[in-house]
């Protein structure tokens, strides 16, 4: 960096191209919406192309750091980029028939989704707390609008407002944490946090805790979860699909990055205890409250809260294997949770009304494919072997036991048992009750079918042949200076 | 690869995955093709049975260790492999599975009307799960198959079951899962200890056998394994899911549940819990025996109090499995052989009893004992078959049940726990009382209900299904050595390894690689 303005090198440009592609695809769609609305039916394809191009450019970018050590291209960002790209692609596939069903297919939906995706991409690649914060804000702003996408429906406006108010609050926490870390380390770069003697300073501890709160909010980690059920319920399902997966993965990665920089040999005992407590609280609260849910989207919201508890175990273990386990877990969570939301999107007709689980009665015999994939996803979320969800839990619990965190592992599996209660309840309603709706759901749209097939294939692929994913995750995790083998 | 070579070198893999392949094939059929689905499922199960017969002929009775082995890398970074093989114990249970599955499907030919295709698919996937569990020699692989079994069984009870099927299916799933999840952590822990001790990741059973655990660690790990298996058996007081699951399950589901799934608890105990933690297992064996004794008597008394035929047979399973548990707890060569043989016997006799109860139920749509009476004169063939199955169940000499019970009693008598044998013998007598009372109240006595006068006789498909089981009952009763020959070496090997390892544990638990605090 020289002088007062930033000069971008060739390498800088190359490394930022994936994000440029997303931004331009979003802008293009918005412009077409304004000037050539007749092209609307191609918007989804265009958005998919944007995501694919961004992924390609990410793979093609040379490894290393750019922007003066503020931006990373590494096996870690490739793998996490693949995870994010996967979430975005499934969300777009589901969005197309969804928006067509409600006769409200507008370019802004895809544009906002792409820009949100751009924000999350910045979060996983940024090595500077300000870049991460900007990414977080781009994501948040896009999704505040998406939450309130149905202007005429009260629940949707409510979701938008709730998400905005609580989200702004959480952003303030994050920013305050960044300020404290800036004050302590004299810079905003994460690498700068790795100075001698910084770890013990009260300002640093407080800063880290505030970041934990801010990103815990994005993860919908209890006790920062309260927004999730209401927002999920009112937000368009394809947007929830993305919001319930990608930002959570990115937040966990950011927390790993910051903690790895500050606490070199390992987490201090008290911080470890705090993280472990968050894990236990989130798993237990998520699973127990999910038992009482009647609405499909709220149920999945609480299930998501519980799953973030499992992932937080990896944060408490805090090591290279633990990060790899968290990455595997997120891939498993991607295919299972995206599939579940895709099925919800395909199985409910009237978006202006709530989505009670009871309405799905007997759909196992009418909407066979969507219901079967839904059941498969639920079994995967419950962690039944031969599905991806089991593999995710396998590596998380293995990491916990290896580190000697027996209590966390035992609380974790007991929570899995509780979760079976509500996942099986949905399966039971799908297959063992007689239909109450006179008509079945509309015929499965091609894009929905494709999204569901991809998720089902992913569940079996990761569940039965996890070795390749584990290897990739391990080599990706080696990017961070984490302790452990 | 030619089909002959495939069968010669990968017979076990073929047996594991053939049913799944069949299930996928069924999935491709149109939903309306119910007739085709029925026949295709039966054909796959029968083919499976035929293909499993060479195991019986080619099994080397003199060989120690596992036979028909296959191995392939599965998750190499963690040393998890697709490692399969069988010994005498798994051989018998595999054959029992491949025989009972087509028998159940044959019975279902004329009795399952709803969602035939789905039913057949669930059944075939269940068979893959069971056989996979029985051949797995890698703990991770074992756990995968062990849990996979739950899903099709959940659907079989929940969709094709009786009035309270939802409750029963949920209870079955949650009970079994509760035990398995803790076992899952124990499996992970054992593998982690192996890695810590040797620097190599492995989930292979024979590698993990070499570890020694002592003290609290051993007790906790053993408890985690034993709990999972005890729930499956089920050992008193963990049995409460069983009568519900059985009563609500469709007949074919009950046959598989009682005939095979329960045995996997005992099998798991013998294959995993006992050889991995022999010292602890033997130290707590008296408790196991006591629970077995309680199971025998309590199950028998409850069976006596039932007025639903199927519930009665279900409680008789609790009692009979108690006898098997006593034999395992006594841990003498003879009692072990008896227990394993008795598992096969119970599979045959209870399978036949459930089948025949199903035959009556399908005609009268009630299982209340008091709704029958004197039907022997109306359906003589059914009555005769029911009587044979009953006699096999209560251990009449000449039929299979006698051999198994006698060996368990004899073996237990020679162990330090003589009084278990006394209690077990009481259970045998009680079983004679409640089973013969059942036969009397259903088939003999005067006809009290006029609607029974037109009760149709057993159909040919049902007759074939039961006859297969009856032939096997007589065969094992007359020539028990055919079966016992295949068990001897395996039981000896099990006992020797357990005793040897127990010594090592006692001498220097902490000094060896993998020794626990």
Set down the secondary structure blueprint.
The complex is a heterodimer of chains A (485) and B (517).
Chain A: H1 10-35, H2 43-60, E1 64-66, E2 71-73, H3 75-101, H4 107-125, H5 129-147, H6 154-185, H7 202-219, H8 227-234, H9 237-243, H10 246-262, H11 269-291, H12 296-317, H13 320-347, H14 363-366, H15 368-382, H16 388-402, H17 406-432, H18 446-464, H19 467-477
Antiparallel strand pairs in A: 1-2
Helix pairs in contact in A: 1-2, 1-4, 2-3, 2-4, 3-4, 3-9, 3-10, 3-13, 3-18, 3-19, 4-5, 4-10, 5-6, 6-7, 6-8, 7-10, 8-12, 9-13, 10-12, 10-13, 11-12, 11-17, 12-13, 12-16, 12-17, 13-15, 13-16, 13-18, 13-19, 15-17, 15-18, 16-17, 16-18
Chain B: H1 3-9, H2 11-28, H3 34-58, E1 67-75, E2 80-86, H4 88-108, H5 116-135, H6 139-148, H7 150-160, H8 165-198, H9 205-209, H10 215-232, H11 241-248, H12 251-276, H13 278-283, H14 285-305, H15 309-330, H16 333-364, H17 380-394, H18 400-413, H19 418-443, H20 460-478, H21 480-508
Helix pairs in contact in B: 2-3, 2-5, 3-4, 3-5, 4-5, 4-12, 4-16, 4-20, 4-21, 5-6, 5-7, 5-12, 6-8, 7-8, 8-10, 8-11, 10-12, 11-15, 12-15, 12-16, 12-21, 14-15, 14-19, 15-16, 15-18, 15-19, 16-17, 16-18, 16-20, 16-21, 17-19, 17-20, 18-19, 18-20, 20-21
Keywords:
heterodimer, A: mainly alpha, two-stranded antiparallel ribbon, 19 helices, 73% helix, B: mainly alpha, 21 helices, 3% strand, disordered C terminus
């Amino acid at each position: 960096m020289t002088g007062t303005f930033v000069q971008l090198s060739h390498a800088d440009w190359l490394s930022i191209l994936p994000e440029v592609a997303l931004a331009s695809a979003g802008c293009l769609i918005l412009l077409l919406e304004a000037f050539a609305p007749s092209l609307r039916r191609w918007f989804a394809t265009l958005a998919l192309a944007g995501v694919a191009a961004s992924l390609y450019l990410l793979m093609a970018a040379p490894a290393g750091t750019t922007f003066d050590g503020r931006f990373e291209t590494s096996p870690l960002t490739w793998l996490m980029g693949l995870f994010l790209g996967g979430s975005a692609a499934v969300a777009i596939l589901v969005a197309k028939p969804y928006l067509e069903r409600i006769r409200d297919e507008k370019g802004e939906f895809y544009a906002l989704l792409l820009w949100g995706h751009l924000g999350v991409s910045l979060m996983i690649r940024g090595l500077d707390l300000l870049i991460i914060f900007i990414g977080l804000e781009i994501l948040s702003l896009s999704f505040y609008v998406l939450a309130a996408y149905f202007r005429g429906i009260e629940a949707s406006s409510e979701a938008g407002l709730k998400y905005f108010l609580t989200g702004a609050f959480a952003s303030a926490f994050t920013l305050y944490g960044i300020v404290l870390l800036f004050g302590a380390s004299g810079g905003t770069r994460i690498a700068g946090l790795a100075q001698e003697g910084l770890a013990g300073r009260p300002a640093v501890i407080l800063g880290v805790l505030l970041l934990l709160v801010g990103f815990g909010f994005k993860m919908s980690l209890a006790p920062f979860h309260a927004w999730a059920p209401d927002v999920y319920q009112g937000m368009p399902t394809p947007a929830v699909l993305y919001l319930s997966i990608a930002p959570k993965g990115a937040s966990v990665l950011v927390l790993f990055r910051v903690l790895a920089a500050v606490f070199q040999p390992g987490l201090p005992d008290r911080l470890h205890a705090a993280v472990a407590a968050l894990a236990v609280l989130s798993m237990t609260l998520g699973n127990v409250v999910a038992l009482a849910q009647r609405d499909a989207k709220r149920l999945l919201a609480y299930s998501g809260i519980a799953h973030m508890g499992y992932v937080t175990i990896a944060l408490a273990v805090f090591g290279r294997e633990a990060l790899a386990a968290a990455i595997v877990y997120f891939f498993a969570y991607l295919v299972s949770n995206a599939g579940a939301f895709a099925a919800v999107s395909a199985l409910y007709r009237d978006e202006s009304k709530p989505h009670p689980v009871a309405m799905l009665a007997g759909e196992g015999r009418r909407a066979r494919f969507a219901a079967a994939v839904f059941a498969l996803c639920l079994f995967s979320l419950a962690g039944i072997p031969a599905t991806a969800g089991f593999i995710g839990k396998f590596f998380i619990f293995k990491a916990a036991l290896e580190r000697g965190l027996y209590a966390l592992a035992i609380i974790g599996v007991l929570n899995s048992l509780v979760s079976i209660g509500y996942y099986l309840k949905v399966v039971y309603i799908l297959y063992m009750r007689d239909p109450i709706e006179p008509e079945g759901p509309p015929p499965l749209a091609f894009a929905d079918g494709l999204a569901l097939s991809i998720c089902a294939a992913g569940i079996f692929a990761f569940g039965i042949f996890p070795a390749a994913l584990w290897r990739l995750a391990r080599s990706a995790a080696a990017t961070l200076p984490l302790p452990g083998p | 690869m030619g089909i002959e070579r495939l069968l010669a070198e990968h017979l076990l893999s073929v047996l594991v995955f053939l049913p799944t392949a069949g299930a996928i094939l069924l999935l491709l059929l149109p939903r309306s093709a119910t007739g085709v689905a029925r026949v295709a499922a039966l054909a796959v199960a029968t083919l499976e049975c035929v293909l499993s017969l060479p195991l019986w002929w080619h099994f080397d009775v003199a060989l120690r260790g596992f036979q028909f082995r296959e191995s392939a890398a599965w998750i190499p970074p963690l040393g998890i492999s697709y490692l399969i093989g069988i010994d005498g114990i798994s051989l018998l249970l595999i054959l029992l599975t491949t025989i009972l599955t087509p028998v159940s499907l044959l019975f279902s030919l004329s009795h399952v009307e709803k969602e035939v295709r789905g039913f057949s698919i669930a059944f075939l996937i269940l068979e893959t799960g069971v056989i996979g569990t029985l051949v797995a020699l890698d703990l991770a692989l074992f756990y995968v198959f062990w849990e996979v079994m739950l899903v099709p069984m959940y659907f079989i009870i929940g969709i094709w079951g009786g009035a309270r099927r939802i409750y029963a299916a949920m209870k079955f799933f949650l009970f079994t899962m509760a035990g398995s999840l803790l076992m899952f952590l124990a499996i992970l822990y054992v593998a982690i200890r192996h890695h810590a001790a040797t620097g190599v990741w492995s989930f292979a059973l024979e590698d993990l056998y070499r570890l020694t655990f002592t003290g609290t660690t051993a007790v906790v790990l053993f408890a985690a394994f034993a709990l999972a298996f005890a729930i499956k058996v089920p050992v008193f007081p963990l049995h409460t899911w069983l009568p519900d699951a059985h009563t609500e399950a469709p007949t074919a589901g009950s046959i598989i549940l009682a005939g095979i799934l329960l045995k996997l608890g005992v099998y798991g105990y013998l294959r995993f819990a006992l050889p991995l933690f022999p010292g602890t297992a033997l130290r707590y064996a008296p408790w196991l025996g006591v629970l077995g004794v309680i199971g025998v008597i309590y199950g028998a008394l409850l069976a006596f109090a039932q007025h639903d035929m199927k519930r009665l047979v279900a409680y008789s399973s609790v009692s009979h499995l108690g006898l098997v548990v006593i034999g395992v707890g006594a841990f003498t060569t003879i009692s072990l052989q008896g227990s394993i043989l008795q598992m096969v016997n119970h599979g045959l006799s209870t399978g036949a009893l459930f089948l025949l109860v199903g035959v009556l139920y399908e005609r009268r749509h009630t299982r209340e004992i008091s709704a029958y009476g004197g039907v022997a004169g109306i359906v003589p063939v059914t009555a005769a078959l029911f009587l044979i199955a009953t006699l096999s169940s209560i251990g009449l000499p000449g039929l299979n049940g006698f051999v198994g019970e006698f060996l368990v009693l004899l073996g237990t008598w020679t162990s330090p726990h003589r009084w278990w044998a006394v209690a077990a013998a009481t259970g045998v007598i009680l079983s004679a009382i409640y089973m013969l009372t059942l036969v009397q109240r259903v088939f003999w006595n005067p006809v009290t209900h006029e609607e029974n006068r037109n009760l149709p006789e057993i159909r040919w498909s049902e007759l074939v299904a039961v006859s297969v089981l009856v032939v096997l009952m007589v065969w094992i009763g007359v020539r028990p050595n055919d079966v016992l020959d295949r068990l001897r070496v395996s039981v000896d090997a099990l006992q020797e390894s357990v005793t040897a390892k127990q010594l090592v544990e006692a001498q220097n638990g902490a000094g060896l690689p993998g020794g626990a605090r």
